[in-house]
C-alpha cells in the first residue's frame, strides 16, 4: 500500500501558457511507493485535483512502475493562489495508505499569460563619443509573472553602436520573477568617429505567449 514518505508529485512544466491557450496539456505524475520503497501493488488508484483549469481525475498503478500520470488541460477557471497570487495553481494527488487513511502531495504550476507588462528605461538617450548607456527592461505577463518557456526576446540596434547583455533570450521553464527583469548596454562602436548618428533600438517578444514590440531611439557621437 502507498506510504507518505514514498509518495511525491511533479509537473512536466513548471510554467504553462494557461492564460493564453485553452487545451494545452501538461503531464502531472505521481510517484507511489510502499513503506519498503517498492512500487505499490497493481490497481492502486491515485486521485488528482487542481485549483485551476481541468485535470483528469484519476489513474491506476500497474505495479511494475511507481509512476501514475494524468493530463492537466488548460481551460477555465484561471487560478488565484491565496499565498502565491494570480496565475498559480496547486495540483494535488491523493491516495490511501495501509491504514485506509488519505495521503496527499501537491505541486505548484504557473499559468502564465501574454507579455503585457513590457517596458524599458530609459526611453531616450545620447551616447557620447566612446561612451556607454545601460538599459533595464521588463517582460512579464499581466500578473507580473514570467512568460512561457520557448518565447524569444531579442534586442536589435541600428546605428554607430553595439549591444551587449540580454539581447537574445530563450525563456526557460521557470516561475521565478528574476526572469522578468533584463538589461543590456549600448556602447560607441567606433570612438574614432565623432559624427552625430541616430540610433534605433527594437526590443521584441515573440512566441506562443504572443508578440509585443518596443521601439526607442536616441543619438550617439
Instruction: Using the alpha-carbon principal axes, give the shape.
Output: elongated
* Low-pLDDT stretches: none
- Structural class comes to mainly beta
The rounded Rg comes to 24 Å
Helix content: under 10%
CATH architecture level-2 label of the largest domain: Sandwich
Mean pLDDT: 96
What's this model, at a glance?
With 221 residues, this protein is mainly β.
Textual characterization of the structure:
The protein has strands at residues 7-11, 15-16, 25-32, 45-50, 54-55, 58-60, 67-73, 80-81, 85-86, 88-96, 102-111, 117-121, 126-127, 132-140, 152-158, 161-165, 168-170, 181-188, 197-206, 212-220. It folds into 2 domains: 4-111, Immunoglobulins (Immunoglobulin-like); 117-220, Sandwich (Immunoglobulin-like). The chain starts with 6 loop residues before the first strand and ends with a strand. The chain contains no helices and 20 strands. The strands form 5 sheets. A 5-stranded mixed β-sheet has the order 2-11-10-4-6, with no helix packed on it.
Helix-strand blueprint:
Layout: E1 7-11, E2 15-16, E3 25-32, E4 45-50, E5 54-55, E6 58-60, E7 67-73, E8 80-81, E9 85-86, E10 88-96, E11 102-111, E12 117-121, E13 126-127, E14 132-140, E15 152-158, E16 161-165, E17 168-170, E18 181-188, E19 197-206, E20 212-220
Parallel strand pairs: 2-11, 13-20
Antiparallel strand pairs: 1-3, 3-7, 4-6, 4-10, 5-7, 8-9, 10-11, 12-14, 14-18, 15-17, 15-19, 16-18, 19-20
